Amino acid sequence: MSSIKASIITIGDELLIGQVIDTNSAYIAKALNKIGVQVTNRIAVGDNKEAITEALINTSAKSNIVIITGGLGPTADDITKPLLNEFFGGKLIIHQPTLDHITDIFVNKYKRPLIERNIMQAEVPDVCEVLFNENGTAPGMLFTKENVLFFSIPGVPHEMKGLVDTHILPIIQKRFKTPFIEHRTLLTAGIGESFLAEEIKEFEANLPSGIKLAYLPNFGMVRLRLTGADIDSNTLNININEQFAQLKNKVAAYLVTDLDETMEMVVGRLLKEKNQTVATAESCTGGFIGHLLSKHAGSSQFYTGGVISYDNRIKTEFLDVPTEILQTVGAVSKEAVEQMAIAVREKMNTDYAVSVSGIMGPSGQTDEKPLGMVWMGVASKEKVYSKVLYLRFDRSRNIEVTATQAINLLRLLIINKI
Fold it and tell me: Does residue 180 have a pLDDT over 90?
């Protein structure tokens, strides 16, 4: 089964200097993958005619589809449209439906005059198929050259997404026979990527053609994803489900979930199923654990709230951590986080609590308590448990890892594994 290959070109100096993070490529690649199109190249180029032209030539030589985002605005540095007009040998003409749309936006909606720059947005090469942009003023364009489809769309994310979903994907599916793609994902914890790979090396070596295994480590955990492709959906589902069942059996000792969900989603689902609640007491994470637990709809069913006890005075006044503990073993200690968890659970009348206190950096460490040292605590009515981490990342990454590991510790308490 020959694959359909695509390249993505993002245009803009702001991408190359790091002023703007390229989220467009990720969205496009994910959308293409769902319909069985393989992205083989992702290229960022500046607002430079020679660089864009070179990218078009190089990517089209090895792709069936080229998707270009950016450079379609009304200012002088937006050079994509005249460049494409020259590249494909066309001449610029006014696209009347787009001009009517632009007029409606500026004159009728915003009560502003229509200036020449606005009108120029309605110009398109006469050799393209216009992709109407309901969410903005610059239309998308489709060119065909030597059996390669070239899509050019604005770089504004919500405009890009609208054009991808309503125009690009349907056109690709109509013009190519795309295979069916299926993913099966599980999450493991308590084992590193290399050790996990060693345990399932025979399984991976014996995977049938058309099914691939990917390792996705993050936050001290490893997500495993099986991806299969086939022109027959029934055959694909049977094969990938069989392999996924084998994979789950191989990693059963470390399995967190056999769904494509985050750790906080797993814990939220467990708490809702048990009709139970949790509260948080956070020092070094500054509320990030509470953010994760409350970010999904329905979280009010299980998350009652939290205390951000950054200052030691808050630990003593609100969480009943004795001054003696802070003066002897300190805030970053087993004793402190256990008391924080006990107190916040009792004060918020919840079934569980989770607490953290640590040194996130880049300063604050001592000889006894190095940078990245974090204590985590969890509590129920019957049990209190704590664990120490020694992290090696920067401040932001340390906070993220701590929050996810603390939520996993809560999961282990809920399922009676600690």
Answer: no
Q: Is the pLDDT score of 1 beyond 60? A: no
Domain 180-257 classified CATH 3.30.70.2860?
A: yes
| The predicted structure's pLDDT at residue 139 | 94
What percent of the chain stands above pLDDT 70?
Answer: 99
| Contact status, residue 184 vs residue 244, Cβ threshold 8 Å | yes
Instruction: Show contacts of 317-320: CB within 8 Å, 24+ apart.
Output: 318/343, 318/347, 319/281, 319/343, 319/344, 319/347
CB 262 within 8 A of CB 299: no
Residues of the chain above pLDDT 90, percent: 83
Cis amide prior to 362 (ω within 30 degrees): yes
Question: Do residues 248 and 258 make contact, with C-beta atoms less than 8 angstroms apart?
Answer: yes
Q: Which one, of 86, 117, 120, 83, lies nearest residue 9 by Cα?
A: 83
Helices 312-319 and 334-348: crossing angle in degrees, nearest 10, is: 50
**Residue 141: predicted pLDDT:** 97
Query: Residue 387 forms beta bridges with which residues?
Result: 376
Residue 70, amino acid = G
Confidence check: pLDDT of 6 > 70: yes
CATH of 4-175, one of 2.60.40.10, 3.40.50.720, 3.40.980.10, 3.40.50.11260: 3.40.980.10
Residues 195, 250 contacting (CB under 8 angstroms): no
Domain regions of the chain by residue span = 4-175, 180-257, 263-414
Task: Among 3.90.1310.10, 2.30.40.10, 3.90.950.20, 2.40.50.140, name the CATH number for the domain at 263-414.
Answer: 3.90.950.20
**Does residue 92 contact residue 180 with C-beta atoms inside 8 Å?**
no
Output the pTM of the full model. 0.78
Helices (H) and strands (E) in the chain, counts: 17, 17
